[in-house]
């Protein structure tokens, strides 16, 4: 989802209980109702103590694990940064939900709302999005949400005719650059070439806007989005780029102003306005959005959802693939070559690649590109976990930390192990009910009545396409420490 997250990024058995999809609509009457364990501590002191644990002393995963062990519960109260001193009006009090059954409540729009809670109670200034609340901040009950999401679905469908060709042609450019660097330097960091590839193919596919019409946008557009994303998310991210307490003071104590990236954002706005005018016109004439609403929502879809998400997810795929020492790469390559033959890569072909798709799903499970999901209780309701139920009050904020939820041992066997074929065969398909990377289960359907990612299926297909492209292009592909260190072209 975001560049700041990207800075910090780079299992099913016969004993598994019934794999009926989790339901949040009714808590079992047989479950004992418990008081939610945990507390928020003393005013100011409690949030600051939790903030230091979260960012400094423990890190997010250990932070949640320790409290889950302490409370002997996957549902508990805690504080999630950002907090005092300069985040006035931001309430860090949360109810953590860290198992698949409890986590499902975050997507039941009868129980929860999603208004302004993309990053919990902290919301970056709307100056980053044209002084308006773009679609991601709208609840499903707001009429504008339906307009924006329907528009997003339209431009995705419209892009389908050029999506694959634009992606492959930009991959050709990217791999050409990487091959030259590997040959001359022995290695090549792939992140920025990949980001440039992602930016160029997305702008052409989604907007019909050729970034090369502007040398600055074509060469620097991905960097502009990186900075725009980072400034919004820095207060919520563990980076590890500065020694403590400098990181706490400089990154987690205040929100950064839009002014620092306003020039770049305005250039991107004018680029979309001029080069994407046909898509802008569709937003205005067919979906009732004004020009400003259309362009700012397009930029958010491009920058935060698409570019930001792919910038986290696709590098993790390449690292897993290129760092494999188990023979998986050869198994994947065999499947790809059998399915492709002499044909050109296409979505219809990659749909038939069961192991490749499972590898992509397992990467989404193991390294979710969006670590957090939030929701606010729309009304009083009973939240059920496996062995207990909990009373949640209207207005309380729930937080799910997806890297732990996706390692729920009651659902996934060997949850701490990367199992590439986990999602194959009938049993693996059932597990897709629990793969929540897209703000809902993989088996869910995006609609204006929910907040599930409109592009969830095309994201999986694009990732599978990347894997297939690498394996048809190279007989050997090696990645170490975020760099390609060796490639052997396919014979």
Going by CATH, the homologous superfamily would be: Cytochrome P450
- Helix-strand pattern, N to C? HEHHEEHEHHEHHHHHHHHHEEEEHHHEE
Low-confidence stretches: 1-19
**What is the radius of gyration computed over CA atoms, rounded to a whole number of angstroms?**
22 Å
Number of strands: 11
Category from helices, strands and their pairing: alpha+beta
Main beta-sheet strand count, sense and barrel state = 5 strands, mixed
Query: How far apart are the termini?
Result: 37 Å
Biggest sheet, spatial arrangement of strands:
2-3-9-6-4
Helix content: 40-55%
**CATH fold name, please?**
Cytochrome p450
Strand content: 5-15%
The geometry reads as globular
CATH class division: Mainly Alpha
GO molecular function, one term: monooxygenase activity
Cofactor: heme
Keywords: Heme, Iron, Lyase, Metal-binding
Helix and strand arrangement:
Layout: H1 3-7, E1 33-34, H2 45-57, H3 60-71, E2 75-79, E3 93-97, H4 100-103, E4 112-113, H5 143-159, H6 163-185, E5 188-189, H7 191-207, H8 215-233, H9 246-251, H10 262-275, H11 277-287, H12 291-322, H13 328-340, H14 347-350, H15 354-366, E6 372-377, E7 381-384, E8 389-392, E9 397-401, H16 402-405, H17 425-431, H18 456-473, E10 474-480, E11 483-489
Parallel strand pairs: 1-8, 3-9
Antiparallel strand pairs: 2-3, 4-6, 5-11, 6-9, 7-8, 10-11
């Amino acid at each position: 989802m975001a560049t700041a997250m990207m800075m910090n990024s780079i299992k099913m058995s016969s004993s598994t209980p019934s794999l009926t999809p989790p339901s949040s609509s009714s808590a079992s009457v047989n479950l004992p109702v418990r008081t939610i364990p945990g507390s928020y501590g003393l005013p100011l002191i409690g949030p600051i103590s939790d903030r230091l644990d979260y960012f400094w002393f423990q890190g997010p995963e250990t932070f949640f694990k320790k409290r889950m062990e302490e409370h002997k519960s996957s549902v508990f109260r805690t504080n999630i940064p950002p907090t005092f001193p300069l985040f006035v009006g931001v309430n860090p009090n949360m109810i953590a939900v860290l198992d698949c059954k409890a986590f499902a409540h975050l997507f039941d729009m009868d129980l929860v709302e999603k208004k302004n809670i993309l990053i919990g109670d902290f919301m970056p200034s709307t100056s980053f999005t044209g002084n308006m609340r773009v679609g991601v901040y709208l609840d499903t009950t707001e009429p504008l949400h339906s307009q924006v999401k329907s528009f997003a679905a339209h431009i995705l469908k419209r892009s389908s005719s050029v999506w694959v060709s634009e992606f492959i042609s930009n991959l050709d450019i990217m791999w050409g650059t990487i091959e030259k660097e590997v040959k001359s330097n022995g290695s090549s960091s792939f992140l920025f070439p990949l980001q440039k590839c992602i930016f160029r193919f997305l702008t052409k596919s989604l907007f019909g806007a050729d970034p090369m019409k502007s040398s600055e946008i074509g060469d620097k557009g991905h960097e502009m989005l990186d900075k725009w994303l980072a400034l919004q998310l820095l207060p919520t991210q563990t980076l590890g780029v500065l020694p403590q307490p400098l990181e706490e003071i400089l990154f987690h104590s205040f929100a950064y102003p839009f002014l620092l990236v306003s020039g770049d954002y305005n250039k991107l706005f004018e680029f979309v306005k001029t080069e994407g005018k046909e898509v802008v016109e569709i937003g205005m004439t067919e979906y009732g959005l004004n020009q400003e609403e259309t362009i700012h929502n397009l930029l958010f879809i491009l920058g935060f959802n698409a570019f930001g998400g792919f910038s986290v997810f696709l590098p993790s795929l390449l690292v897993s693939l290129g760092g494999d020492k188990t023979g998986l790469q050869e198994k994947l390559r065999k499947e790809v070559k059998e399915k492709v033959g002499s044909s050109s890569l296409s979505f219809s072909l990659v749909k038939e690649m069961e192991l490749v798709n499972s590898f992509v799903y397992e990467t989404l499970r193991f390294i979710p590109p969006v670590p957090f999901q939030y929701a606010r209780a729309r009304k009083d309701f009973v939240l059920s976990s496996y062995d207990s139920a909990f009373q949640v009050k209207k207005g309380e904020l729930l937080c799910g930390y997806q890297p732990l939820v996706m390692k729920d041992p009651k659902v996934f066997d060997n949850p701490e192990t990367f199992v590439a074929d986990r999602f194959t065969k009938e049993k693996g398909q059932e597990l897709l009910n629990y793969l929540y990377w897209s703000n809902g289960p993989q088996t869910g359907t995006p609609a204006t009545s929910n907040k599930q990612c409109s592009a969830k299926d095309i994201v999986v297909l694009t990732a599978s396409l990347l894997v297939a492209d690498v394996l048809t292009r190279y007989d050997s592909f090696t990645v170490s420490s975020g760099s390609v260190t060796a490639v052997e072209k396919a014979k």
